[in-house]
Amino acid sequence: MAFVLPVPSMQDLKLKLQQSTLVSPAKQTENKVFFLSNIDQFLNFDVVTVHFFKANPDFPPETVAKRLKMALERVLVPYDFLAGRLKLNLHSGRLEIDCNSAGVGFVVASSECSLAEVGDLVSPNLGFRQLAIQTLDNLGPEVDQLLCVFQVTSFKCGGFSIGMSTNHVLFDGASAQIFIENLATQAFDDKPLAIIPCNDRHILAARSPPHAEFPHPEFFKPDLPAGLGPPAFDCEREELDYTVFSLTLNAINYLKDKARESISSTSTKITSFIVVAALIWRCKALSNYTEYNKDTVSTLFNIVDIRSRLNPPLPNSYCGNAVLAAYSSATCDDIEKWPFSKLVELVAEGPKRMTDEYVKSTIDWLEINKGRPRGEYTVSSWLRMRFGEVVYPWGKPMHSGPVVSYRKDICWIFPGFDRVNALVSLPAKEMERFVACFREFFPQSIIN
């Protein structure tokens, strides 16, 4: 098991900006207002990923940039809302997208570094933020409303990266996967879309009249002045440390064995994600634990795909946010004292609540209260995402993964080669305690 730390010497990738422009759909699309569901409403923040590629003599970076720009123009026809602008409907107080073909951001840059000099691509290197610019300041104030920006960066070795910054209102993980697969097909000369997206988000509209049948402690109703839209699911911005906790197969098996030691429910499915999420929750709760706050309740959010949980199920091609947060709560004192199996059971129980009735009640509760999530910490699994398997004309990525951000309230769990990686961002003192708690949980034979 390894702890992957930032590489301070490479936080400046010595980038030179070559092109910064807007890309619009290849042909005229309908000017319309695009409905956003109640789940979409509070997810107004950017998700940033970078995808690294080896040098390909048949596709030098300048050719890749041209192909990717062409692919964007093509894919923005079925995905016309990406080229729109987010706006607040003052009458309804809801966010919606003005589909006006204003365009998505497109950046071309070059680095004086080689990929070998950059080093471990899984490392939470702050320099990777330069590979996925989120705003295009040179194009005027309208650009501040961009919903997505794509960036091709060439390295002196001939390798390159594609950075993607997308507003979460556009996609959840599953629909982002489909979008990237479709984007890749359009970079070829004659390939159709991999999957036709289902863009009708009215499927997840509230019932009329809305009726919340369950209590929803995972949300709270904010006290908002009249005329303001839904609050963003955001957090305070502060200086953070970043660590990727990389768990080998041996470490995962150790966690599963610990979970089975005294688990009470035979129906609890012990998966790699569940045991890693339970451990992350324990370390996060105890990173703030003292004698004075032992009765503080720690709540973990586990992001659950609801597509197959509805009746009838959502189309697999549903393009939007079809995810909700399953919650698990306990006091810090209990989290420290309980056996690991108890935490695993609590994390595994959360998704079982996500029935068709509960999901519809959640959507209706959000309609009534314009609420936002209440949880202290969120784990989001990318283990089923196949970003690294997407085939472009220039091949598959060497590595695809999230870029560190200012968010200290989300842990991204993503796949590695024969391991599971967890990207944690915390203030320095909390991170120090988190790392200590993490190490203490494993025997030396697994850590070394």
Automatic annotation (TrEMBL):
List residues traversing the bilayer. none
Under Gene Ontology molecular function, one entry of this record is: acyltransferase activity, transferring groups other than amino-acyl groups
Q: Which family, according to the similarity comment?
A: Belongs to the plant acyltransferase family.
**Which source organism?**
Sesamum indicum
Quote the protein name from its UniProt record. Answer: Omega-hydroxypalmitate O-feruloyl transferase-like
Q: Matching Gene3D superfamilies, A to Z?
A: Chloramphenicol acetyltransferase-like domain
Q: Read off the Pfam families from this record.
A: Transferase
